Amino acid sequence: MTRPTSATAPREPVLTGSMVAKAFDLGEAAGPMIEIPGSTAHRTWRLDTFGATYFVKHYDRPWDMPTWSDWIRYIQGSWEIERAAYEAGLPVAEPVLAKGAAWPWLDLDIGERLATVRVHKWVAGTMRTDPASVAVATQLGDLLGRVHRLLPELTEWRRAPAWPEDWRAAAQVGDRVPRPWDRTFNDALPRLEEASELCRVAAAEKVRLVRTHRDLHSHNVIERPDGSVVVVDWDAASTQRADWELVETALELAGYISGRPDRNVVDAVVSSYHQAGGTARRITATSFAGLLMCSQNWLRYNVRRVASRQPKAPATGGDGDAVEREAVRSLAAVQRATQGIDQWLPWFQ
After folding, report:
1. For domain 17-122, which CATH number applies: 2.60.120.200, 3.50.50.60, 3.30.200.20, 3.30.300.30?
2. Separation between Cα atoms, residue 169 and residue 125, nearest integer Å
3. Taking phi first (over 0 means left), then psi (-120 to 50 degrees means alpha), and beta for anything else, what does residue 232 get?
4. Buried-most residue among 107, 166, 191, 316 (CB within 10 A)?
5. CA-to-CA distance for 287 and 199, rounded, in angstroms?
6. Partners of 78 in the β-ladder
7. What tens digit of pLDDT does each residue of 285-295 get?
């Protein structure tokens, strides 16, 4: 039970509560673990022992992936940020480390297979939905401001954007028979190219970075019965532009996907962020590039899934019609974000 070291170890299929409880010194499991539905990337469970309740996460990462070693280095960095936030007293779920362990992940040996697992103390409450309440938004703006000044800023960073010509090529795969989706996509090309151009300008800017959560959306926020919030899932924590995360967090919590974000929620996030000493001081149009890059990445993934199938053939990774519907939704998200910049920019100034 050590941290991952082999690039050739196989994937893990099964976990038991007794196995996890023993590995993390949690005491005796009170029964089988209860799987938590709705996870988009990894399997998660509730584990009850005779002393406490825990959240268990199994990382669904094949050991033979070429990027596995890079991922290991990445999550080591994310743990440093999570640990700093927890030790600073921020509302973070309590991480559980095995006795004597230097970091929170353990590989559990199950015969010829391995499971990479980590554990947190269970947080009783309700997962938030968008749009957030003003009270929740105020707490999260405060947390974001405190996180942004928690660790030293880093040097300048540049990120490759989605170039405008990528979008024209994305839907042109082989001799695919045209579909109704094609017109929807082609009609949106001017907006997509506008979004990509803004990202290209932002990528050329010289900035300093903060080390932060990077995924502060409602699905990673638990509201406890007393109204206080706890932020979970710091696995994506890394470096980011402070202004990008402030804009993206505020608009996500305000429900921008609907096309009608709640101005009061944005105001609450921004005001509490600055009161907490957040480092994002000047918000410009390029501050929206983080939101646009995130939505464009998801759109690109769905466009490729649509473009790679024949008209009535199922798409890789799901039902063909469902894939096309998700592509339409992700396209709308990019369009709304691009169209809304002129209206939303003054909200941050």
Report:
1. 3.30.200.20
2. 45
3. beta
4. 107
5. 9
6. none
7. 999 998 998 88
